[in-house]
UniProtKB/TrEMBL annotation:
Lineage: Bacteria, Pseudomonadati, Pseudomonadota, Betaproteobacteria, Burkholderiales
GO molecular function: hydrolase activity
Protein name: MBL fold metallo-hydrolase
Domain of life: Bacteria
Record key words, sorted: Hydrolase
A Pfam family hit: Lactamase_B
Provenance organism: Pseudoduganella aquatica
């Protein structure tokens, strides 16, 4: 049995852009998640190529992180696609509330787009001529959703479950609960009997039980000492900025990185460092892990 039906296409492009899932129904076409803003023209090209003259009727977002909705604006401009977002983010998107959306806190970019309607846990959607259930998936993000097709056993897990782990548990950085929710989300996935998972990042995979086991081990490690989640978070955030920019002037990085609200929060709450010290520490960690290197006064993306 093939992992995915022929009318479901997954665009996988490294870690800066989330996976995009194109659902080619007989009467309607939906894209689940749209990647990061700097890849938006490429996203449009990929969609156009796969659509062969058809229209993209609808965009569905699992959550509002910049790497999942950064292509929305260009696709809306081109196709006028109806756009559905998690119900608890609908007003934030409509008013483009930068204090509620994550872009300002993380220093990530997202071109403003519009939202036409909500998606709530318990909703049902038809995509690729199949019925999909909308499931709540808090943990990585309070508002995140997953999509499950029981008939085919396909789960679109967003950043709640990857082949190796899951996304940063962001709510914990602000002193809110996230580990407990992530555990419940993994428990929910275990009940689904999914045959194949389309994760938010990385390759489609079928060994779901092994992925759940790895994710639970990882969650035990992080929740055992939340400092580890904070350390992981700041490394991921700086790596994301490096992936986006490829090079940053080394002497400008500490002030820029320290100014990000999420870095300040993690520093104060967990790391026992000033935000500037956190920035210096994070640079060292990326260099040590060969994720970055320093050359002629620049911090360069590596690895
Ligand atoms: Zn995310």
């Amino acid at each position: 049995m093939k992992a995915l039906p022929d009318n479901i296409h997954v665009f996988e492009r490294g870690w800066l852009s989330s996976n995009n899932v194109l659902m080619l129904g007989r009467h309607e076409v939906t894209l689940v998640d749209s990647g990061y803003m700097i890849h938006a023209p490429q996203t449009l090209d990929l969609v156009r190529h796969a659509l062969k003259g058809r229209r993209l009727d609808r965009i569905v977002n699992t959550h509002m992180h910049s790497d999942h909705c950064g292509g929305n604006a260009i696709l809306q401009a081109h196709y006028g696609s109806e756009t559905l977002v998690p119900v608890s983010e609908l007003e934030h998107v409509r008013h483009w509330n930068e204090d509620k959306l994550s872009f300002k806190a993380t220093g990530q970019q997202c071109q403003r787009f519009s939202a036409d309607g909500p998606l709530s846990p318990g909703d049902k959607l038809t995509m690729a001529d199949l019925e999909w259930q909308v499931l709540g998936a808090p943990g990585h993000d309070v508002h995140s959703l997953m999509l499950f097709c029981a008939k085919e056993g396909i789960l679109i897990s967003a950043d709640a479950l990857w082949q190796n782990g899951f996304g940063v548990i962001f709510p914990e950085l602000d002193g809110e609960s996230g580990f407990i929710e992530e555990r419940a989300t993994l428990d929910l996935i275990a009940t689904l009997d999914a045959r194949v998972v389309i994760p938010g990042h990385g390759a489609v995979f079928t060994d779901v039980a092994a992925a759940l086991k790895r994710a639970r081990t990882r969650l035990d490690f992080l929740s055992g000492n939340p400092v580890r989640n904070a350390e992981y978070a700041v490394k991921v955030l700086l790596k994301f900025l490096l992936l986006e920019r490829q090079r940053m002037k080394l002497d400008e990085v500490p002030a820029m990185f320290a100014a990000l609200p999420i870095v300040a929060a993690a520093s104060q709450r967990y790391l026992g460092k000033t935000p500037e010290e956190t920035a210096e520490w994070t640079i060292k960690q990326l260099v040590r892990a060969c994720s970055a290197r320093i050359e002629s006064g620049y911090l360069l993306n590596d690895g």
